[in-house]
Amino acid sequence: MYRLKVNGQTHEVDVEADTPLLWVLRDTLGLTGTKYGCGIAACGACTVHVDGTAQRSCVLPVEAVGEAEVTTIEGLSPDGKSHPVQRAWVELDVPQCGYCQSGQIMAAAGLLAGNADPSPNEVRDGITNLCRCGTYERIHAGVKRAAELMKA
Amino acid sequence: MTTMPLSRRGLIKSTALAGGGFALAFALPLTTRYALAETPPETSRVTAFLEIYPDGTVRFLNPFAEMGQGVYTAIPQVVAEEMDADLARFIVMQAPVAPEYKVLFDGTLRFTGGSTSVRGSFGAMRNAGATARAMLLTAAAERWGVDPSELAVENHVVRHAASDREAGFGDLAQQAAALEPPREVTLKDEKDFRLIGQSPPRTDTPLKVNGTAWFGIDTKVEGMVHAAIRQCPVFEGKVASIDDAAARKLPGVVDVVNLDNAVAALADSWWRAKKAVDAVDITWDEGPLADFSSEGMLNDQMARVDETGVPAEDEGDAPKALRGAETVVEATYVLPFLAHATMEPMNCTADVRADGCDVWAPNQGADSVATLAEQVTGLPHDRIRVHTPYLGGGFGRRFIIDYAAQAMLLSMKAKRPVKLVWSREEDTTHDYYRPQTVVKARGAVKDGRIQATHITVVGDGPLRRHMKQFLADPDLDESVFEGLVTKPYQIEARRTDYVYHEIPVPIGFWRSVGNSVSGYAYESFMDEMAHAAGADPMDFRLAHLGEGSSARGVLEKVRDIAGYKKGIYDADGERRVMGIALHESFGSMVGEIAEVSIEAGAPKVHKVWCAIDVGTVVNPAIVKAQLMSAIAYGLSAALIEEVTLEKGRVQQANFDTYPFLPPDRMPEVVAEVLTLDRPMGGVGEPGTPPIAAAVANAVFQLTGERVRRLPFGRRELKQVEAEGATVKG
Ligand code: FES
Ligand code: FES
Description:
The structure holds 2 protein chains of 2 kinds. Chain A is α+β, with helices and mostly antiparallel strands. Chain A folds into 2 domains: 2-75, Roll (Ubiquitin-like (UB roll)), CATH 3.10.20.30; 84-151, [2Fe-2S]-binding domain (DNA polymerase, domain 1). Chain A has 5 helices and 5 strands, in the order E-E-H-E-E-E-H-H-H-H. Chain A has a 5-stranded mixed β-sheet with strand order 2-1-5-3-4, sandwiched between helices. In chain A, strand 1 (2-6) and strand 2 form a beta hairpin. The longest helix of chain A has 16 residues, at 136-151. Chain A is globular, with a radius of gyration of 15 Å. Chain A starts with a strand and ends with a helix. Chain B folds into 3 domains: 8-209, Aldehyde Oxidoreductase, domain 4 (2-Layer Sandwich); 216-287 and 346-421, Aldehyde oxidase/xanthine dehydrogenase, molybdopterin binding domain (Aldehyde Oxidoreductase, domain 4), CATH 3.30.365; 295-337 and 433-728, 2-Layer Sandwich (Aldehyde Oxidoreductase, domain 4). The longest helix of chain B is centred in the first third of the chain and has 28 residues, at 117-144. In chain B, a hairpin with a 2-residue loop joins strand 31 (645-646) and strand 32. In chain B, helix 1 packs parallel to helix 2 (117-144) and helix 2 packs across helix 3 (169-177). The radius of gyration of chain B is 27 Å and the shape is globular. Helices cover 27% and strands 26% of the residues of chain B. By secondary structure, chain B is of the alpha+beta class. Chains A and B meet through helix 1, helix 2, helix 3 and helix 5 of A and helix 4, helix 6 and helix 17 of B. The site of one FE2/S2 (inorganic) cluster has 12 residues of chain A, from loops.
């Protein structure tokens, strides 16, 4: 039994110690906004925040989460649209199929939380999530726009 | 103005909704053909469903699946145009399986793919919108006792200027529902379009920024269990025996099921199911393909390049012209198997009961899911419901619904709803691959002109494999040779031979299908012929394109937006080249120019300029996004993707061994959308075929090496040192 803090709520989950946080979120807690792409930390579809830092939840065993605060896409903003990254994403219509976008948005929000004005190179190095639909250019434009919105 | 007569009465039914709105079931003749069928269509019934609620909300049931390509925006955009409705008030949902939603190919088919949705349903969707508008207008005229001609409709509101009255669509809906639908509707003149040709916001974006968009993998059904699967690593192999004792003891495990060619474990979470299926000791009977190797098959294909096949095109006497020619260019191109690698792995949820079944299947053809369900469950058609979620990528993979059959079988065994999710490894090793193909090209060149070409393609195609019924002649599988024939270039003698070489492993439709092969081979060969002629690749192509043709217009446009430079030039301290390619597919002409340098032995693509002629454009922003996406997909394949098989097994498994284009290799894309004189063309795929050749053509100039086998990543490239070094083909 593990006690997890997710999006401001505490949950008790009865899972094995090595269960990746991703599957606890998706199947035990029903938070399916966080996606499975590879399970080996190669794509970033499963990105969530752990104590404010973007992490790939498919390789994070639940026992390693401990007391940390987990934030998923569902908890990024109270209304599901007001975080500057979400606003920028809507403004620029960043997603295509959308499957990677929860992870992209969490990676972008994590980057901006630590660096409010990243250079293009910092964005490139900071967000390595894969997108099969090739939305990379709009992701980069979206991060730039979100940084502006954060300043405003 | 186009007047659309309705052939019979009663094809449009309106029904009052319980909540006071109205629903329209349209059944309209499809009178406009958009270059899809070869024969003019009979009058067909085309049906779509619109529901208008008292608050003005319009529920639109879309026959097409949204997989990123934008049909949840572009299709309702067309309806809203004719309806004079506010697109922002549309709720777009997926239509269920019903004959009314077969809106393609003369009302006979419903599928999502082939870059077909918008162009194939344009007329039908315009009719739907115009009919709804006419009924709302009539309702207002009756209410106010005025002549309909005195009314105007704008942005969800009907107005009577003379008496300064107005009513919203929601307000009029109930009254409109009681009306007999009009016998004929009038479509707008294209010059009056206010929405078609614009880029309103996508309807699906808000759901895709907060985790609420429903993908198949997110399906939750009361009483559901999760399933993970291991399929025989060798195609056509079977389970010989299993020992599942250890697996069954693991926590949360409900059952272990032998599916004959696969083993699945059912548990209360996917992770537990996955651990359980991994714990099953399986002995495989590897079957007839246990020794299959893709390299071995390639050798066999290479040995057949000079065979006479079935002529896919034969104009003039190309073989004779080649025999008599002074300068003959010959080249053989090799293209590997490719995986689709959709970000969302294959998955399906099925609930098969004694009295019916529900299937939640990411798919590119809902009707085929229903047919499959009839076959697998034995239930009658009317007891089957198919639910189509948002697709986390399709690219042609989800036409083949092997995973849906598995989910149904598992639900039948478990007697409860089952959600089956393939691991990434299963997804990569059990795809329906872009076929490995060999293309040999021969060309006679004289005085800067191509006298003759003779091309032979050796391979197998997904149309013959999966949809044989659509081939007029099964020996002429156009999914293999499309893009090698009916080229825009003026060449007098042309022959294309198709040598059928059966591929024993699964093959399927991969974004742009045969064009992903032909775009690379043909356009690489154009550059090889230009080189033999001593001509610049741009000049050489233009010399073979007719004045005023779409191809010429597109090539000139991309030349101009790129500021095309001949040969090697310096930029940012690097030697760079602009490589060109031009390819027509799915009714659209695309020209691309890639600016390339060589970095660490690999092509570095800095920027891609792209021009497309689509004839008529509905949503330019979506077209541009699709071009970017299609270029990323094609470039990824050209640079790094390859599926190989040894001992009947796919050698790649996850994104570490089957990587695709990462963000730092994505070039900047500049796209220009043209509407020259052609019927409306497709958008989702045509950007993919040219990119590999554009890069290969630049690489040739930079390195003197012809990359005739993809992907580029197979070997290290060396830049030539001397300026203008002579290059060998
Ligand atoms: S699913 Fe976690 S990185 Fe791909
Ligand atoms: S939007 Fe489809 S994978 Fe990124």
